[in-house]
Amino acid sequence: MHFRVSPITMSIVSSLPQAFTKPTISVDKKAEEVQSFYQQITLYYPDHMSEERDRLLDNIEKLVMTRIYKSVFCLHSSQDEQKDLFLHKRIKSLSWVTPRMLQLPLAEGSQEEKNGISCSVTALIEMDSKRAPQDKLSCVSKACNYLYKSIQSCKMEPATADDLLSCLIYSTLKANPPRLWSNLEYITRFCNPKRLMAGECGYYFTNLCCAVSFIETLEASSLGLKQDEFKRLMQGSEVTTCVSGNGLSILQQIQKNKELLVELQHRQDTLFQKAKCLGKELEAWTRSVQVEIQEIVSRFPLDAKAPPESCV
Amino acid sequence: MAAGGGGGAGGSSSSKTYSFKVVLLGEGCVGKTSLVLRYCENKFNDKHITTLQASFLTKKLNIGGKRVNLAIWDTAGQERFHALGPIYYRDSNGAILVYDITDEDSFQKVKNWVKELRKMLGNEICLCIVGNKVDLEKERHVSVQEAEAYAESVGAKHYHTSAKQNKGIEELFLDLCKRMIETAQVDERAKGNGPSQSGGARRGVQIVDDEPQAQSAGGCCSG
């Protein structure tokens, strides 16, 4: 079976790219074609060979999508680019959101929190550099697994969906992954649907979609804030994007150091003046000593030649 | 409403494998996590729990010669995440809605979810309403009659479980699987000639969900 199928699929695969890279065809149409192509391949395989079929599909998906990537990902003509920019701005304007507002199940300031979040941030950013949908998906899975580990070690019990989602929202905010919207759309369009529907990767991807949807629509109540407080933070974020969390303490430190330097300068100035005074005083003193000696010498000339012994 | 997503696998051979997606809904403290952990790992409040997570679990079953791969998706149940529900439900074959029999509010929440699920997935989805913590029967605040009558009125089945005492859980999942197989078979027959078309033709998760499934079935079902 396997050998009979391979040449056919290979010939289809090799003829695919020309058809899929045509700029006249819309991305959605291309996605439809690719999906029905996946579908055709599954038809060749009976049910008991499902494992081989899935493996083959994975490889074909990787091959095809790597080849046609540039002609279907984040095109200028599509709305995706606009949406990417919008999402990027939105996440940037929410840089003040703290772990506490999102009720993360991680101990605040703990090593687990920092490690888990920063590793998952890296994985989310990495997604944009991959080409095949399955490789992008495994970045999302990696991000979630880092989060699971830190949740488990903080809570000492298995992570739930609420735990995962709140952490993933926070990581997404911190990562602000490049071309996030385009990546999600691309995966939805071109990934093998079986993966997205029931597989573990599909679960993590769904959570990322939830995180993005939450970020897009979040308001004061979603973060447990009052309306005016939320407004103030949103307005403030434009001016002081970097002044949140760690940024604040750094700025305070700089201010403090500046004050210390000014004081030091002042003290050095006085020291310098006093030193000058001291110098002058010393000069005056040596001069006065010389004058005094001169005076004494002139007053008592050295006539020690003949001490008159007789007069004692 | 298009195919029950996972109606699963094709082929007309006698050994079929069904893949089902089941979403798990319930407020934070109703014990839904304990329920699935009990079912998939047979653990309850284990001090030595090594399971990393209880949000995505799988289980393989064999029911009368039919193989079933069950994927159980926990959903974020906190109020602030309420609007995200539909993103999780998409393409699911079954839903387990858990409430705590000592907590009237948790039962009200279940009612809200039922409405939402029916609106989105119609009658394709098999609903199970589960009253958990029957070991606390003395503190019951949701009457059996009321719960069962409600379940019947919305075309759902009602179950009583105790994750602590491991009661009713096997039955719940077994029953759900049988119902999902039936639904998938009806679905296949309705489609007639194309048994292996089920599932695969549909696109997976859609991010924008204004019109659930309306356009996603698209032209792929050329068969």
Automatic annotation (TrEMBL), chain A:
One Pfam family hit: VPS9
GO molecular function: guanyl-nucleotide exchange factor activity; small GTPase binding
InterPro entries to which the protein is assigned, alphabetical: DUF5601 (IPR041545), VPS9 (IPR003123), Vps9-like (IPR045046), VPS9_dom_sf (IPR037191)
Annotated ranges, domain VPS9: 81-224
Entry GO CC: cytosol; endocytic vesicle
GO annotation, biological process: vesicle-mediated transport
Protein name per the record: VPS9 domain-containing protein
From TrEMBL, chain B:
Membrane topology reported for the UniProt record: Lipid-anchor
PROSITE patterns: RAB, RAS, RHO
The entry's keywords: GTP-binding, Lipoprotein, Membrane, Nucleotide-binding, Prenylation, Protein transport, Transport
GO biological processes: protein transport; Rab protein signal transduction
GO CC annotation: cleavage furrow; endoplasmic reticulum membrane
Gene Ontology terms, MF aspect: GTP binding; GTPase activity
Database matches in SMART domains: RAB, RAN, RAS, RHO
UniProt-recorded name of the protein: Ras-related protein Rab-21
NCBIfam families the record matches: small_GTP (TIGR00231)
Signal peptide span: none
Recorded family membership: Belongs to the small GTPase superfamily. Rab family.
Locations listed in the record: Cleavage furrow; Endoplasmic reticulum membrane
Listed CDD domains: Rab21 (cd04123)
